């Protein structure tokens, strides 16, 4: 499958490399065509890894992943172009983190809105599925780094798009039964709002390699 | 120990009954002295269970638990009286849930503030510890209803008050090593912001008897 990734940071690169290793073709998109990180990634990714602009990556992908920081996601997706996103599964991994001068991290938006919802509203023809934003990218593509079962959460308005997302996550090593469908795209608020806890835990543990397991009554 | 509970709902009553069963003396406080739920609870709780006003419960307790809904907690604690809270451990269980007409549940405050912080700011002489607000009250007092380890989170500015909270939770059946100290009271934001996920999970599972387990790398 051809996959476009919007964003060239560690998340985009990690996902891109895993997808290439699984036999997919990947274009990593950045704001400018000469982005050094994207070019370096493509150079080592082999013939199935490409670099391009946001628009080129979105046009290339049958599926598009938003791996930008949440506070710049809408600008990046505008540059990618609504005409390249319509009708496609758009997996949104973003968390809208704002790092304040006082050391606090807040979300923008939060509580009454989410990045996932904003993307769906601005690109109504895209099939937005919120996913993967609750785990570190090393775990995204290798859930067996943790012992036993642990959870991912998905949210979105289109059942087929969510099923396609679950299948893609299966390729990363996530059993379908570990993935909890929280409902429509407004549930993106719930997973984005887990970030303050996640950041506290990361600071406490000194590692990003942890995840949530939901335990139910015996 | 003498414990004052602010709030007469299911959370307050469940905690009160457990505390009485553990040999503590409990006064359940309500807005008015003739609150029927509080009087009925005290009648069946035996000689160690009492009912009274918010102020009477706070004055009675060597430790005070805030078991009111988060949107009314400050009003209830003002009625309880700063003079009855100063110097005491004040365990805050509140979540500031606002149920909107459109079926969405939001928090007020959220993200840049929390009920835990607001209480600590308004009652600077109290030793506020945020705890227990991430689990259903049946689990609060019986963590063994779920199989295996699962987590509670605490936050607060006073290390001794947190240690005292951990000891009290131990009486409820929570091993100290299951409880994660997230830091100062601003971390109350993190646990209050887990509520949107919790509510989605509750609707999905059809039960409130679940909890989070944090899994770390092997």
Automatic annotation (TrEMBL), chains A, B:
Recall the GO molecular function terms of this protein's record: oxidoreductase activity
* Coiled-coil ranges (or none): none
Which residues belong to any copy of the Pyrroline-5-carboxylate reductase catalytic N-terminal domain? 2-96
SUPFAM superfamilies named among the record's database cross-references: NAD(P)-binding Rossmann-fold domains
Which key words are in the record? Oxidoreductase
Look up keyword Oxidoreductase and say if it applies.
yes
Q: Name one Pfam family in it.
A: F420_oxidored
PANTHER family recorded: DUDULIN-RELATED, REDUCTASE
Q: What is this protein called?
A: NADP oxidoreductase
